[in-house]
Amino acid sequence: MKWIYGFILFLSFSQNIDAQEWSVADCKSEFQCGALSNKVSAENVEQLSREFLKLHLHKTFSGEFTLKLDYQKASPYGYHIQFYECLKEQEIYGAFIKLNIALDGRILSMFSKLPEEGGSVVVKQPDTNLISPSRDTYKLVDMHPCFYYNGSTFIRAVNSKMLRRHPTDLIRIISDAQGQTLFVEQLSRYYAPQDTYVKARAKIFLPDPLT
């Protein structure tokens, strides 16, 4: 079944290379934007974060739209937690909230990209009745169903990570039910060959210790 989805994405990407590419332009950033309601610890940071987000964003994240934990990590400076938003228990591609929380519970920064919940929903499943793919150029690494939000509509889609010729040349392709490419993300955009490495000193304002 995976190779069939892979073929859908292979065809759609090769035919529609001008699909929209990943961008952080729509992400929202906030700094020193509040505090958690209680003393924070590794055991309660997820629950306190959920409570804070409901109040701060005025969203219940219940019913069809929910938040799922992506990761939770600790550092010497505090806690770092990220959620992704789901519709009907499936990930909405690119919809996320990340909090960087000090040990005393202050929200140092919040980064988010959330769709409007009033959009219509297209739930048609992708067609899998296709031929075996050519594996000379693309190799399917990972695939799962998702929703893609185009600004007005939630489209049921396939989220696929594809490996091209070079081991570091990874792309993510979001494809709709007809196999058309909706979105392309270059996962290796920050990769550079070893001989381009340059040592330098720099100061970073309010760094995230994990990244």
Structural class: mainly beta
Order of helices and strands: HEEHEEEEEEEEE
Gross morphology is: globular
Number of helical elements: 2
Strand content: 35-45%
Whole-number mean pLDDT? 76
DSSP strand tally: 11
The Cα radius of gyration reads 20 Å
Distance, first to last CA: 36 Å
Short description:
The chain is mostly beta strands and 211 residues long. 13% of the residues lie in helices and 40% in strands. The strands form two sheets. Strands 1, 7, 8, 9, 10 and 11 form a six-stranded mixed sheet that branches.
Structure in words:
This protein is mostly beta strands and 211 residues long. It has two helices and eleven strands, in the order H-E-E-H-E-E-E-E-E-E-E-E-E. The protein has helices spanning 2-15, 45-57, and strands at 20-21, 28-31, 65-75, 78-87, 90-102, 107-113, 120-122, 139-149, 153-163, 170-175, 181-186. The strands form two sheets. Strands 1, 7, 8, 9, 10 and 11 form a six-stranded mixed sheet that branches. A five-stranded antiparallel sheet has the order 2-6-5-4-3, covered by helices on one side. Strand 4 (78-87) and strand 5 form a beta hairpin. Mean pLDDT is 76; it is low at 1-22 and 127-135.
Pick out its properties.
single chain; 211 residues; mainly beta; six-stranded mixed beta sheet; five-stranded antiparallel beta sheet; 2 helices; 11 strands; 13% helix; disordered N terminus
